[in-house]
Write a structure and sequence with these properties.
The structure holds two protein chains of two kinds. Chain A is of the alpha/beta class. Chain A is built from five helices and five strands. Chain B is built from three helices and seven strands. In chain B, strands 1, 2, 3, 4, 5, 6 and 7 form a seven-stranded antiparallel sheet that branches. Classes of the chains: A alpha/beta, B alpha+beta. The interface between A and B is medium-sized, with 21 and 23 residues.
């Protein structure tokens, strides 16, 4: 698998580091990792950077993860880039809402590196 | 959806279950529940609000060395290297426990929303809330340090 550029969106810097570590433990080779603390910062970053994978929390200040993926969809930004939500918000309604907004996967916190691998590798294989 | 009536003692069990899952999966370590610890020596507290069919505040309190140990385990670094991430780590720990508890409540038909965590750290403070109900208190030890998880219900 070629090296990827990933964007990790979470208001917790600790969680952003854990997600990055889990991606590497899952055997995903990362050329570059971009970080954003909320959906608005992530949208701003995507104006100048192209990424291959987006992982986003839902419950964040300024702009939630659901609003972020909705705006990506409406603005046709980062189309075809797999978006995976990584969040404590694990209810069926949240999952359905995220998927309807354009997310391709959903991982509930707390998670293991194996769960990250199992959810993300199939998306990267197309 | 019809809400199921569950007792406060059941809520305590659900919180304990959620906390055990978080410690096991994210910190690679079990929690050791304890009987009441009268003085946790807490000087770091993370707080999350619940709204909806169950309203209240979930709080995780511990002392600085426990908070550093938690951050170190989460990040896979030494406690000294986790210094700058201590508050964020305790907030995220509280967030995951609250999220796990919320998900378990939803499985029983109790719908609620949770806030973003707030962390308070210092040498001499008390948390005063407008929530009036008696708290459900859980005590545990992690890396030898005392840890208190409480859920104060708004009747």
């Amino acid at each position: 698998m070629s090296q990827l550029k990933a964007l990790i969106v979470d208001d917790s810097s600790v969680m952003r580091k854990i997600v990055e570590r889990s991606l590497r433990q899952a055997g995903i080779e990362l050329a570059q990792v971009f970080e954003a603390g909320n959906g608005a910062d992530a949208l701003a970053l995507l104006k100048s950077e192209k990424v291959d994978l987006i992982l986003s929390d839902i419950n964040m200040p300024v702009m939630s993860g659901l609003e972020f993926v909705q705006q990506l969809k409406e603005g046709a930004i980062a189309t075809n880039v797999p978006i995976v939500m990584i969040t404590t918000e694990g209810s069926e309604a949240n999952v359905m809402q995220a998927l309807s907004c354009g997310a391709r996967g959903y991982i509930r916190k707390p998670f293991t590196p194996e769960e990250v691998r199992d959810h993300i590798l199939p998306l990267l294989k197309g | 959806m019809t809400a199921t009536v569950i007792s406060a003692s059941s809520w305590g069990l659900l919180i304990e279950e959620a906390a055990r899952e978080v410690f096991q999966i994210m910190l690679g370590s079990g929690l050791q529940p304890e009987a009441e610890i009268t003085d946790t020596g807490a000087n770091v507290s993370a707080v999350i609000g619940f709204a909806g069919q169950l309203r209240g505040l979930l709080t995780v309190r511990c002392n600085r060395s426990s908070a550093l140990a938690i951050a170190a385990h989460m990040l896979g670094v030494t406690p000294a290297a986790a210094e700058n991430e201590m508050n964020d780590a305790l907030g995220e720990l509280c967030n995951m426990i609250a999220g796990g508890f919320k998900n378990k409540l939803e499985q029983q038909g109790v719908e609620c929303l949770i806030s973003i965590p707030t962390v308070v750290a210092g040498s001499d403070y008390k948390l005063h809330t407008l929530v009036s109900g008696l708290p459900i208190e859980l005590y545990a030890r992690f890396e030898g340090g005392a840890l208190a998880i409480s859920f104060q219900i708004q009747p």
